[in-house]
């Protein structure tokens, strides 16, 4: 089925997503540096962009920058006085993302922070920064439950939280699977469901990135 999913995604890219030199450059640089192809797909990038514009989000928080591909999608979706704060633990990823963002000219709208996301989030909480309107959780999945607890302290009523890669080829519901990534997303979803201040849903997806899915949460 993967070939069919890929073929259909390529059709969707061709008809729905305009070529964008900044995004293409970020992808090209990422592949040239042999970074894992873990960035969102083009249609997923557009989904983030539409959600940010629909929610009129100005302050965006991203966990997991990689080469800055999704960061650029989101930076292009916010107004001039908005900001995307993106957290990345690996120095080589942080450095390439910084270069890629500089190439777009959007550096005034992007704040990249290098270091483990949990520490960076705690620093943002301690600094009492303004809460974020849109949060994209896309870093190491075992820490998703911790990220949720920290991100909720950086949220306000109306914040939208997008959690990527939560279906994990259908292993989410397999209680026998002790992979820390699967266990992380399972706990994350259980935590979302048990928090009365949150409305959450999840959508399973297939496409060029395989079989996966995402959660979408509204902070009440
Ligand atoms: N959001 C990116 C995109 O769509 O273009 C893809 C992010 S990729 C799925 C996950 C990223 O999280 C990797 O770059 C990885 O180095 C980073 N990461 C892993 N563990 C992390 C941690 N503890 N803190 C911050 N970033 C981490």
From TrEMBL:
UniProt cross-references to InterPro entries, sorted A to Z: Cation-dep_OMT (IPR050362), SAM-dependent_MTases_sf (IPR029063), SAM_O-MeTrfase (IPR002935)
A molecular-function term among this protein's GO annotations: O-methyltransferase activity
Tagged with keyword Coiled coil: no
A biological-process GO annotation: methylation
Entry keyword annotation includes Methyltransferase: yes
A Pfam family of this chain: Methyltransf_3
Keywords attached to this entry: Methyltransferase, S-adenosyl-L-methionine, Transferase
Protein name as annotated: Methyltransferase
Source organism of this protein record: Holdemania massiliensis
Organism ancestry: Bacteria, Bacillati, Bacillota, Erysipelotrichia, Erysipelotrichales
